[in-house]
Amino acid sequence: MPFDFDAAIHKQYDIVPLDPSFIPSKEVAKPHILWVGCSDSLTLETFTLAISQEEVFVHRNLGNILSNGDLSSESAVAWAVELLKVEHIVVCGHYGCALTKSDDPKALYGWSKDITRLHKMNDEFLGKFKDKYDERYREHRLEEIYTLAEAGWLRRQPIVKKAIQERGLQIHAFVYDRETNSAVRLVEIDDGKREI
């Protein structure tokens, strides 16, 4: 299923401080969380969430990308959802990510093509508010909508959709902030009324 750029750029969401006990520890040596993070984020899953290493299955790549057809990412999701039967999937971006800052469409042989397009759309969308938003806000917003878009893309994948319907698998979007050494949770709002 393709990346929905228009929906991504118009997402409405709240930014909520992340309580480390948001996903409670089960205190067992079995993964119940799939963590999809960026290779250079320096985010420690066991610091961000109060869990042990044995409770999380970690997949990292440049830009926490799931939607570009990468076999490694698809395999990690399939393994975690179908074999490990994880109860939570966290897509965790981070502010200041070099990949989301780049707007070069040729960068990394197409690895970041979706981010590049979203970067351009974000600038166009915020262009009408030039006096209201500074560069830091633009960068933070891009990372947030990108992370939400990857989580949304993941929700639409058949094996994930089935696990959500049949056993209540939950998908979460987090963004880590190096400056504060803390993470936030991105909570989508449907029609400005209801969390999804």
TrEMBL record:
Domain of life: Eukaryota
Transmembrane region(s): none
Enzyme type, top EC level: lyase
Cofactor(s) listed in the protein's UniProt record: Zn(2+)
Binding site residues for Zn(2+): 38, 40, 94, 97
Cofactor note: Binds 1 zinc ion per subunit.
Keywords: Lyase, Metal-binding, Zinc
The keyword Zinc appears for this protein: yes
InterPro entries: Carbonic_anhydrase, Carbonic_anhydrase_sf
Reaction it catalyzes: hydrogencarbonate + H(+) = CO2 + H2O
EC numbers, comma separated: 4.2.1.1
Gene Ontology CC entries for this record: cytoplasm
Gene Ontology annotations of biological process type: cellular response to carbon dioxide; cellular response to oxidative stress
GO molecular function, one term: zinc ion binding
Pfam families in the cross-refs: Pro_CA
Keyword match Lyase: yes
Family to which this protein belongs: Belongs to the beta-class carbonic anhydrase family.
Function of the molecule: Reversible hydration of carbon dioxide.
Protein's name in the database: Carbonic anhydrase
Organism: Lachnellula occidentalis
Lineage: Eukaryota, Fungi, Dikarya, Ascomycota, Pezizomycotina
